[in-house]
């Protein structure tokens, strides 16, 4: 199962979500990836995102480059989780065949709201986003296990 996390620039939210999910997922054959709907070519993971992932997960993402969302990535994804409802609607309206597989991250986890973009904020702002992602991704993993009948 391929899970695709999507945000705007793939330097903050979605790359942290990918790292968090892959670090806690204990289901064989389930792997997360991430991309942005509008990246800046050559951009790297934000310093604060990389620092939080390193400090919490001991995983270095500081040198990873932002990945532009492509139709192939959408086609290969079994589940697409976006950071906002707008992103969900944008993908679903342009890829009708995937509309049943596209959710906002909060929606899929049964949580109200959206994942706020910490871009340009302090480490405290990024830390709040990281904690929000970690909490919600834990719920996502439980839902996937329930859907697969794993417990």
Automatic annotation (TrEMBL):
SMART domains for the chain: LMWPc
Catalytic-site annotation from UniProt: 7 (nucleophile), 13 (nucleophile), 117 (proton donor)
The keyword Manganese is annotated on this UniProt entry: no
Alphabetical list of Pfam families matching this protein: LMWPc
Top-level taxon: Bacteria
CDD domains for this protein: LMWPAP (cd16344)
Residues passing through the membrane, by range: none
Sorted UniProt keywords: Hydrolase, Protein phosphatase
Phosphotyrosine protein phosphatase I domain span: 1-143
InterPro entries for this protein: LMW_PTPase, Ptyr_pPase, Ptyr_pPase_sf, Tyr_phospatase_low_mol_wt
A molecular-function term among this protein's GO annotations: protein tyrosine phosphatase activity
Family statement drawn from the similarity comment of this UniProt entry: Belongs to the low molecular weight phosphotyrosine protein phosphatase family.
PANTHER family given in the database record: LOW MOLECULAR WEIGHT PROTEIN TYROSINE PHOSPHATASE, LOW MOLECULAR WEIGHT PROTEIN-TYROSINE-PHOSPHATASE ETP-RELATED
Protein name: Protein-tyrosine-phosphatase
Organism: Clostridium folliculivorans
